[in-house]
Amino acid sequence: MLRHLKQTDRLLLTLxxxxxxxxxxxxxxxxxxxxxDRDAYLAIAENLAAGNxxxxxxxxxxxxxxxxxxxxLAVCLSLGGTIAVAVVQIGLGTATVGLTWRLARNxxxxxxxxxxxxxxxxxxxxxxELTSQPMTETLFAFLTTGLLCxxxxxxxxxxxxxxxxxxxxxxxxxxxxxxxxxxxxxLGFVAIRLVFSLLRRKPSASTxxxxxxxxxAVVAAAVVSPxxxxxxxxxxxxILMTTHGGYTLALGNNAFFDxxxxxxxERVWSGDSLRxxxxxxxxxxxxxxxxxxxxxxHDAALSRQAVEWIRANPRRFASACWLRVKRFWAVQPxxxxxxxxxxxxxxxxxxxxxxxxxxxxxxRHRTSLTPLTAGLLLALSLTAxxxxxxxxxxxxxxxxxxxxVFAASAFLAKVARSNSxxxxxxxxxxxx
Length: 432
Fold this sequence. Notes:
By secondary structure, the chain is mainly alpha-helical. It contains 18 helices and two strands.
């Protein structure tokens, strides 16, 4: 048993070392990215560190971005500046690879198969590139993979440590509100299991599910509540998410985007067209008497604009939804995102191979996927959300560990049966 445990340790340490070295290399090569503030997280973090409160412009409190990542950045900037940010990003990315290993092992996959899953996550181009960028994806991927690990066991979704699950869900919600859709699907799944257990007259199992789910909900609410209370104090409403939803809904559901990208031939929405849409939207909002400083009213106005366009153009909306699905699951990044056509082509080949392997694993084990139900629910929830809201490849980065596990499962003769790949269950299957 000790011999096998040492082998497990060696595999895991090798995996973590590969992930760490690759992320260090990317951060060194792409170190300028750490100072590029694409989504105003650095601006908010700098104001937090300076004692100006949660705002991107001093004197204008905001809820446009979720709070967790700016808070983390603020701590990093206070302690060690950009270097501290790089260290945290590398650490989170490396830990996500380790959690991918744990996710596969929780699904009772053999050590070597778990190593393959972790290796796919370790070398994934999306996760590597995002390590060098001060945006939520790296932290969110870490939190969602940990959340899946807390829900995944060989028998399926099992909330054995509901307090831990609640904390992870709450932190994920404070990082990116998109996790709420997964929470709704998960609660629905638990409710269905509860009903079936009652119908089968197994009250003990249903009690465990009910109590576990309630504990998760209570703990998650406790974690999220300070953000809601802060927003209640500042904006007069207990905002659980952000005031960013209206913008992201309108961003991909408007006449300009439809004419240039959905109906047109442009693959990338040009900066000029984007600015024209923004100016037109702002003009309409100003004409309605809404002040630019009023985030809540501004967010609601953008949502109304998007809904109006959707109602007036249902077929164009359907086409836009299909485009977003294709963008979300695209295998080849846009050339502008990689800096070169050749690199974009190579990355496209990589993702095509991994996606085909994942689909192969999914189809091969479609009747025995109980251990991976949580991963499927996460994939379904994020896909559904970004079918309506803005979408690109970056939005699916939290699913890389899930896809990696499915791709690795293509090598299994039977999910949740390590013995089928020539590995005896010697009691080490649940050890790391």
